[in-house]
């Protein structure tokens, strides 16, 4: 798609992990290290496949697979601890970040809709000098139903004061893309700092 095609939107909603920053490999390694500490192993591809899901949803999924997760909240806390130790190592996806910055400069509203918890999301956005562009932040604590349910993006649009058809979502994960489509949002699929596909809702 041509970047000029995005000029019709008043609001831009971005996923964080895997969309604005190259963090998914670090998440996958943190999940695997946590699993190993609990006495089992996982295929890191599972974490990529569940990109967009909340940490608690992932922990519950691992437990439902029969793994000795025990208390999912404690399991998640350990994973977050491991991931946080590497936050400063995260690489930027500069091309997608430039779309965010350019949209803001043109007067568009910007939201982040992520399955990450607020403390980590804020830490990353501040570290990457992106928080100054953000008008609304929706993290995992603010919705009961996470991606592929549309609640994250619906709340983001509401916080921006815009309708669904006035916003476009940027996502890398299949769950996030489904969430956008399920919510009636046009969606730009990105992969490794490049635009891959564009999904436009028939209205």
UniProtKB/TrEMBL annotation:
Record-linked Gene3D superfamilies: HAD superfamily/HAD-like (3.40.50.1000), Putative phosphatase, domain 2 (1.10.150.240)
Gene Ontology MF annotations: hydrolase activity
Alphabetically ordered keywords of this record: Hydrolase
A Pfam family this chain is assigned to: HAD_2
Signal peptide: none
SUPFAM superfamilies in UniProt: HAD-like (SSF56784)
Protein origin, superkingdom: Bacteria
Keyword Hydrolase: yes
Cited CDD domains: HAD_BPGM-like
NCBIfam families cross-referenced by the UniProt entry: HAD-SF-IA-v3
Official protein name in the record: HAD-IA family hydrolase
């Amino acid at each position: 798609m041509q970047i000029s095609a995005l000029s019709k939107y008043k609001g831009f909603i971005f996923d964080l992990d895997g969309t604005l920053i190259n963090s998914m490999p670090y998440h996958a390694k943190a999940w695997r290290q946590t699993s190993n500490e609990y006495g089992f192993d996982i295929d890191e591809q599972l974490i990529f496949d569940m990109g967009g899901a909340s940490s608690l949803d992932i922990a519950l999924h691992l437990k439902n697979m029969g793994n000795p997760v025990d208390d999912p909240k404690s399991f998640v806390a350990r994973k977050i601890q491991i991931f946080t130790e590497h936050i400063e190592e995260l690489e930027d996806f500069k091309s997608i970040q430039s779309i965010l910055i350019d949209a803001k400069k043109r007067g568009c509203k910007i939201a982040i809709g992520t399955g990450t918890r607020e403390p980590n999301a804020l830490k990353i956005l501040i570290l990457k000098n992106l928080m100054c562009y953000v008008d609304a932040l929706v993290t995992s604590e603010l919705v009961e139903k996470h991606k592929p349910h549309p609640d994250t993006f619906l709340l983001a649009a509401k916080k921006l004061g815009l309708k669904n058809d006035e916003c476009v979502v940027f996502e890398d994960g299949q769950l996030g893309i489904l969430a956008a489509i399920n919510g009636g949002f046009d969606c730009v699929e990105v992969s490794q700092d490049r635009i891959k596909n564009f999904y436009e809702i028939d209205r």
